[in-house]
Amino acid sequence: MDFRGYLEYFGWSQGELARQIGVTPETVSRWRGDVPKVVLLYLGEKYRHAEYVKGLRLWWEARDL
Fold it and tell me: Count of domains in the chain?
């Protein structure tokens, strides 16, 4: 997934991402397609965690108690 895809998945603006990672919104806007790898790694891990939790939720709800 690319940078924009991650932002859309989480429903974040660039400003919200800036708040999440502790930089200014101006810093995020300066990246313009050249997003630091560490930020992409962070977003990728956050995405994988969210998908894992979603899968657990679905499994829990589908259990036949």
Answer: 1
| Beta-carbon-side half-sphere exposure of residue 39 (alpha carbons within 13 Å) | 20
DSSP 23-56: --HHHHHHHTT---HHHHHHHHHHHHHHHHHHHH
Residue 39 CB burial class (10 angstroms; 0-12, 13-18, ≥19): middle
Q: In angstroms, rounded to a whole number, what is the distance separating the alpha carbons of residues 65 and 33?
A: 49
- State phi, psi for 27 to the nearest 5 degrees: -60, -45
For 25, the domain range is: 3-62
Q: Which one, of 58, 52, 39, lies nearest residue 1 by Cα?
A: 39
The model's pLDDT over 22-48, given as tens digits with 9 standing for 90+, comes to 999 999 999 987 999 999 999 999 999
